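ok so for the tutorial part 2 we go from a plain amino acid sequence to predicted structure tokens. step 1 is just haveing the sequence, like this:
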Amino acid sequence: MAAISRAASKRLRLQVLDLMLAGGTSKSVAEQVGVSGTSVRRWCQQAGLHRAQGWAGKDVSVIPANVAPLPARTGHARRLSLAERTKIELRLNDGWSQSRIADDLGVHRSTISRELARNTLRWGRSCKTGGPADSAYNAATAQHHTDYRRARPKTRKLHAHPALRHQVLRLLTHGHSPPQVSVRLRHLFPDDERMRISHESIYQELYLQARSVLLQELKVEVALRSGRTGRIPASKLPPASKRTWLQGCLLADREQMFAAEICERKIPGHWEGDLVVGPGNSALITLVERVSRFTLLGRLPGARDSETVIDKLTQMVESLPEAVLRSLTWDQGSEMAKHARFTVATGCPVFFADPHSPWQRGTNENLNGQLRYEYPKGTNFNTLTDQDIQDTQDRLNHRGRVILAGMTPAEKLDELIAQAQDGVALTT
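step 2 — the prediction. this is what the tokens look like for a chain of 428 residues:
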């Protein structure tokens, strides 16, 4: 008998919701169904119907009158229509499972699962408090919730809650940034969910409005520390590079030209380079071969302009055989702006790693780390002699490496050059 009574109560609730969504008032629906107006209003509130009291005491929908329900879409990311929601309601009443309903409608079962999670009505005590909770799915109510969520334009939170707006304005006026305003409100009103707002919502009020009322209401314009009155536009197109000398020489171009050689580190001749800088405009050019880990070091004569760097680079590699000089990879520093001169002089193409991607030149970064044991940060390379740099280079090249099974970089490079001269395949 109790089960029948609960089922009858559920049907009565759904009938009330249908009549309210059809345009009835709480008074007229209460008289028609035979319940009190208080019950009608409470059931509507529990169901989440988005209605507000008009000035004359009539129930008025807060959904804009000129906003029509959006049609259901087909194909990718299709939306359920009212007819499909009605079908879901009928199938649930017949005891169908979610998977069976999904197959019947021709949608994925997760679509049904999300629909029920969003739009199922729940009332009564929850299981956490020790009592049962009733629930039901109503197609009309589900459609109402969907239309309300999709209606545009939406009332912004700061416009709907004057108390929240007052606090946001007060904090901004006293120098708080939007993120600080957001966390401060949580601290000041820990138990009031209405006094919550994200920093992004505040930024949107300040930046994205055509004529920001919030900005006009601020007593001090410097409440935004940046001093900007609008956001910097972020184009979806890649930014136009001012470094025209990078065109056709990026890492993707290197991979396209030497795909197998670069990835597998079997063919020698691919070098990575960088500058290790010090005070007094001093710098050290570092070059390392990717297969043998052979190192070349060159001290710059107190200048780091592109012409000086290119001339020194050319001098450093001029004694290398052609077989071990196939490409050079650098970062996007301006010291390589005239890299075309290096390619013409040596026949070696130059490529550039992506910005802020040191792992793309990992071998050279490892070398630079080793050099810092020899020359700590703050070392003025102008105070060193070329012989000092040569001694350091020799120590690095005659140090056995684990990656080379105990061989030194010098021994490994000699072996590779000998194989090339004898016509032995370097890939074996």
